Backbone:
């Protein structure tokens, strides 16, 4: 006889009669020692940049950092700014940009990498521009949210702009 565990593992029907997927186990997708990794390419368009941010927020939710947590908000902002820069300043026709986010549970930290195909132009100093200037605040924001950030050439072409963000405890405990 099957034992009842109280956990739902198969599809269930909601109040509207629609099938819901089974709930994901808490902290889904992490290794036993607390590491997780997301790696994906996105089209070099504003829509691709938005999709990158949403994809990362969803993945952090699986790792135990819901969209209202400080960690998720910080990572989402950093990814949004770096992705916007890859699309605006690092776009090469026909090339995607690439996002990688690693969660390192034991160090309580996220490492974010956004790669594009252009090396001729690179990120410039992260200072606050004059008040009446509309652009130029993205890297300043990254500087505020990240414990460190930088960029390096990427093999075979382009560059990787990276940032590290403190994770804090995941919702529901480590
Ligand atoms: N991925 C990138 N590729 C090339 N240049 C970049 C990249 N990211 C940033 N930069 C350079 O650094 C500058 C500052 O970036 P940022 O602070 O985000 O301001 P903004 O994007 O509004 O110009 C950009 O104007 C651009 O010259
Ligand atoms: Mg920018």
Residues:
């Amino acid at each position: 006889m099957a034992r009842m565990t109280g956990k739902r593992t198969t599809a269930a029907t909601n109040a509207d009669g629609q099938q819901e997927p089974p709930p994901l186990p808490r902290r889904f997708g992490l290794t036993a020692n607390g590491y997780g990794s997301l790696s994906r390419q996105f089209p070099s368009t504003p829509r691709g940049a938005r999709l990158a941010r949403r994809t990362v927020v969803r993945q952090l939710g699986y790792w135990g950092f819901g969209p209202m947590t400080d960690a998720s908000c910080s990572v989402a902002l950093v990814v949004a700014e770096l992705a916007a820069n890859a699309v605006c300043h690092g776009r090469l026709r026909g090339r995607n940009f690439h996002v990688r986010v690693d969660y390192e549970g034991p160090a309580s930290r996220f490492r974010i990498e956004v790669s594009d195909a252009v090396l001729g132009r690179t990120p410039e100093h992260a200072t606050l521009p004059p008040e009446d200037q509309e652009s130029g605040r993205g890297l300043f924001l990254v500087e505020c949210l990240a414990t460190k950030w930088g960029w390096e050439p990427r093999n075979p072409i382009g560059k990787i702009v990276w940032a590290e963000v403190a994770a804090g405890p995941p919702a529901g405990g480590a």
